[in-house]
Design a protein that fits this description.
Layout lengths: L1 H38 L2 H7 L1 H4 L2 H15 L2 H13 L4 H14 L2 H7 L6 H32 L1 H11 L13 H13 L4 H8 L40 H30 L2 H12 L11 H16 L2 H13 L5 H14 L1 H9 L5 H22 L8 H14 L2 H23 L2 H27 L16 H4 L2 H40 L2 H15 L1
Helix pairs in contact: 1-4, 1-10, 1-12, 2-11, 4-5, 4-6, 4-20, 5-6, 5-17, 5-18, 6-8, 6-18, 7-8, 7-15, 8-15, 8-16, 8-18, 8-19, 9-18, 14-16, 15-16, 17-18, 20-21
Length: about 550
């Protein structure tokens, strides 16, 4: 009887786990749609100035911002492929493709925040999320420099498509996840992606489009494309895309956090320590055949690429991987090749978009191949040689910092994906001279600090005594402790203010109760109370 009860409990927990996973994937779709609603016409503004786009640094930052706004590298690369098909030079689009790779990792960074309550889990989850960032940033920094100097990607992909004949329109492979999630997500919100791409490419055909939401249902629930947010669009209350986007963003974040917390709790209750150890060893173990262990990571890459092709989204794949790493089931060393494989898998979408494009098809296919070759070159640089796997120690360091100073994770997210790209884009409006005057000293300072750090670690004896550590600098320049003290003091102040307000409210409620009680007492009770006070006084 007890065994049957335990079995039923396990079955119920598995059903709840799968339900949480389903709504978690739906919440990622809502998160993506909310950013598209908030981005709206701003996408077109990023692509307006063709002179700015010729600057490779600006192109990278535009790629980052666009991907953050649409929350999908597949969508942003498809937009860029569309731009190339509409006569934008391949050379101009290459840096934007690189930037799109960076922007896609914002989703799993946000997902890692749900494990912030446990320092150790948060350390592992944030390291898993940011290993993708580190790989993308390092690859972009090196390859955008190489591309500007040599035209390596443009030349190589140009040779690939030079002898290409006519290509037939291609269809997408089946998107298994969308088959499952569409019934729910389409009942909540539906976007017109043609309008979104039209605004991004400044297509005159969509200049007068008022909203990204699908319209012409008139709030009629019998309409086949009726959905909940239609009541907030032009067919309903017409509160505007930005307001609808904010509402959808809040809904998606609440769903995402609730589902992830539920998944982590259920996983912890389902997996005993012995089972957890078996799974951990099974996933993180190399092939147990002599001389073939090194092949494990490359097979793992293929698994990551295959799963991403199946789900048609690197964001969904890496965001599902993040809580597993936080729970300790997947090590950072194993998550790294899975992430690299996911980067390869996501390039299939842009290739298919290029094959299905009209006009300038060869150029469109070329830019899609640039996306593939960029990721493969990054893997060649930062994976085969163990010493060159820099993203792993960098991500570990970021995980250690965020577990100690949890506010740093929010600062990192805002700086890397919003503030830094926006500042670069803003500086570019003042002209290339102003941008490089600001950027070059910063880059030189960063390189100097990295060089000194490496010398301090490996060749300390060749440095002057004063440079063998950073103690000669004021504390704010060598430690996050002063900033942490200020932030903690501010948080403490606001907590005390909230407590005082709560206490004052409680006192007011007590006084109100006393007054109401005193009004309810009859004259005889009042007289006896007064006599009691007089006796007490005497």
């Amino acid at each position: 009887m007890n065994k049957m009860k335990e079995t039923l409990v396990v079955i119920v927990k598995i059903i709840i786990l799968l339900t949480c996973l389903y709504f978690f994937i739906c919440s990622l779709g809502f998160l993506s749609d909310s950013f598209r609603l908030l981005g709206g016409r701003n996408l077109g503004a990023l692509f307006e100035n063709s002179e700015l786009l010729n600057n490779p640094v600006v192109g990278v930052m535009i790629g980052v911002l666009v991907t953050v706004l649409v929350q999908s590298s597949s969508t942003s690369t498809s937009i860029i492929v569309g731009l190339v098909a509409a006569n934008v030079p391949v050379k101009t689009a290459i840096p934007m493709i690189m930037g799109a790779n960076i922007g896609t990792s914002v989703t799993n960074t946000i997902v890692s925040f749900t494990q912030m309550s446990d320092r150790e889990e948060f350390r592992r989850a944030f390291a898993c999320a940011t290993v993708h960032d580190m790989f993308n940033w390092l690859s972009v920094i090196i390859l955008v420099t190489v591309e500007s100097c040599t035209g390596y990607l443009e030349t190589m992909t140009g040779a690939m498509v030079s002898n290409m004949g006519d290509t037939k329109d291609s269809t997408k492979p089946p998107d298994f996840l969308k088959v499952l999630t569409k019934p729910f997500t389409k009942s909540v919100v539906q976007l017109n992606k043609k309008v979104l791409k039209g605004w991004a490419t400044n297509d005159e055909k969509y200049e007068n489009a008022a909203t990204v939401l699908k319209t012409d249902c008139g709030g009629n629930s019998s309409c086949t494309s009726y959905y909940l947010f239609a009541n907030l669009g032009p067919d309903g209350a017409d509160i505007g895309d930005s307001s609808s986007g904010i509402i959808l963003l809040i809904i998606s974040l609440v769903m995402l956090c609730g589902c992830l917390i539920g998944m982590v709790k259920i996983l912890n209750s389902l997996l005993g320590e012995k089972v957890r150890e078996i799974i951990r060893n099974g996933i993180n173990k190399d092939i147990p055949i002599k001389y073939l262990g090194w092949l494990t990571d490359y097979l793992v890459m293929l698994v990551g690429a295959g799963l991403t092709i199946i789900v048609q989204s690197s964001s969904v794949f890496t965001s599902t991987l993040t809580p597993l790493a936080g729970a300790g089931l997947v090590s950072l060393e194993r998550a790294y090749p899975l992430t690299l494989g996911s980067n390869i898998g996501t390039t299939t979408t842009s290739l298919l978009a290029a094959l299905a494009s009209d006009g300038h098809k060869k150029e469109a296919i070329q830019i899609a191949l640039v996306h593939l070759c960029f990721n493969i070159t990054g893997i060649i640089l930062f994976y085969p040689i163990p010493f060159m796997r820099w993203p792993v120690p960098l991500a570990q360091r970021l995980g250690d910092i965020t577990s100690q100073y949890r506010w740093f994770s929010v600062a990192y997210l805002l700086l890397m994906f919003f503030i830094f790209p926006a500042i670069i884009f803003g500086l570019s409006l003042a002209g290339p001279v102003a941008m490089y005057v600001v950027l070059l000293p910063i880059v030189a300072l960063v390189l100097l600090v990295i060089s000194i750090n490496l010398l301090q670690k490996y060749k300390q004896n060749i440095l002057p005594t004063v440079l063998r550590d950073w103690n000669f600098l004021p504390e704010p320049f060598r430690s996050l402790e002063p900033i942490d003290r200020i932030i903690m003091a501010c948080i403490g102040f606001f907590k005390n203010m909230c407590r005082r307000n709560t206490n004052n409210t409680d006192k007011d409620d007590i006084n109100t109760d006393r007054n109401s009680n005193s009004k309810q007492t009859n004259p005889e009770q009042e007289a006896s109370i007064n006599m009691g006070y007089e006796a007490e006084f005497v």
